[in-house]
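[scheduler] slot 2 assigned
[scheduler] job type: sequence-to-structure, two independent chains
[scheduler] chain ordering preserved from manifest
[runner] begin chain α
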Amino acid sequence: IGFFYLPNPTIVSDAFVLDDTTDGKLGTGKLGPVISATASNVLELVLDDATQGKLDTGRLGPIQVWTDVSEKAVEAKVRRGRQDELDRWDAGTASLLLDNTGREFEPLNTASPYYEQLRPMRQMRIVAEHGGTDYPLWSGYIQGWAFDYGDEQGTTLVEGTDALLLLDQPIDTISSAYAGDTTGARIVRVLDAIGFPTARRDLDTGLSTMQATTAGDSAMNLILEAVEAEDGQLYASGDGKLAYRSRHAWNVDSRSNTAQATLGDQPADTLGYADVSLIYDDSDIANKVTCEAEG
């Protein structure tokens, strides 16, 4: 069973507007539009409010609430991972085919409850439920909406890419600096430079140290320098966090050294599968390997 979520578009209050006769009043305007399913979910800072005006309780931004569109889902596809242990992790992608017979998933339909909300770079997530537990399969950013009116059931195809998409940003050249950074610390510097959310990071410290850098490249390329120096792993997890694993992670992480599931043809105590194929050949055998440090 899949659950497919889009951000909830219901706006339940206006933003705080300076000098506005209504939304500029103390105790009424919020510092940022509140996007929520119900007013009870509002936690924005409200000036002079007895509850939401207290320091360390109100937030300076909207709360993210998701809309479950599972009933409209026709098909979902998720692609994450890499081909083998020596490859880099590709950006995870997902596509969600929605029943659009009622035209609610058309950006230009002013009668849609999602009007003005169906835009590129909105977040989307796909969750699977098994045994009463939800398992996040993919979380990322919508890159486009495509529409098909070729049969009696209109459909909308939503396609997106995970958090690795956000790393395609340039970083200015700087004077040579930061020699001795651990690989994890170097990645933190790069993420800070592009404003990547701290709450959406899951980063190891790393075991290797880096040479000085002058930056002047994309965030992705600068991060990959650290990943390759470590012989580590960089990927976006199913819950949408940017994950970095050191070269020892495969030996110490429970997900790597402890079996997570058993596949088999006995449904009582194993998970079923559609097909399994194994390749065991000489493609990754090397008789001689040489390497040298740069710089």
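[runner] end chain α
[runner] begin chain β
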Amino acid sequence: TLQCLFGFTSLALLFLTGPVTAATFSVTEQSCVASPGGYQWAIEQANNSPGHDIISIDIPEFQMNNCDIYGSDDLPIAITESVDIVGNGNTANGYVRYIDRNGNINPDGCPATASDGPSATFTWASRGGSLIDVGVRGADSSGIEVSISGLNMKDLTRVGHIRRNAKLTIEDASIDNIQSVSLNCNTAIIRAEEGADLTIRNTEFYKLTLPAEPFFSPSSPIIPINGIIEGYDAGELTMDRVTVIDSIGAEAALVIWSGGAVKIVSSRFFLSSGFIFDDNSVDFVNSMFHNFLP
């Protein structure tokens, strides 16, 4: 009898600890805050669902400029469970728009530092939005892995932020006209915290703008430390079959990365700033810079 009881106990444990089936949450509404069906709603559902889930974008375009903002860093709701965001060729649009006194839309300069009060030189039509915040704020986010595939991202203020030890993969995507014009216009378009990994595959970036004045390191006054993509004491950076066209910054580097290994493979960079690497190994394979547009 004792052997029989142990046998049933083992079977029960195997049943209870079996694999959790991934849930799929569909984005079907244009408004970020729509419930159900909005992008923010889908993240909330995935956060509350055990296992590695899927967010499927099933609408041609959804907007990021009316998402709720959490904290002071102008980011949307955090993703705190592993999830795959499947774009299905659809678009996340931030609709960032600001207008100067002459009626010019999105002119050069930093609207965030010149748009408040009676002496404002810019008027906001839409403050845009950021797509993603991966991991738990202020905590070790080991084990949280997010992928974005087949999604077009345009007119955002940032793509997003990767928290400590989390992982973000972007593949088969396009990232178009991203303007870091929130806060002080010097926030990286993609930023990785300590130990965070970033992988970008088969993705094209077009026109990345970081309009803030450069901030120079006191110890190295000719080296700017603004980065369009940056990670400090970060994990691994992989850029595989990546094309960057026309990245614009006030002496900002396209990539600043320190910590983990960097691998750049079969990638091309047109009219884009260079890289600054510190305290890491770098493989730059079958890749090149061009000082002209393709």
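[runner] end chain β
[qc] chain β: Residues 1-16 have pLDDT under 50 and may be disordered.
[scheduler] slot 2 released
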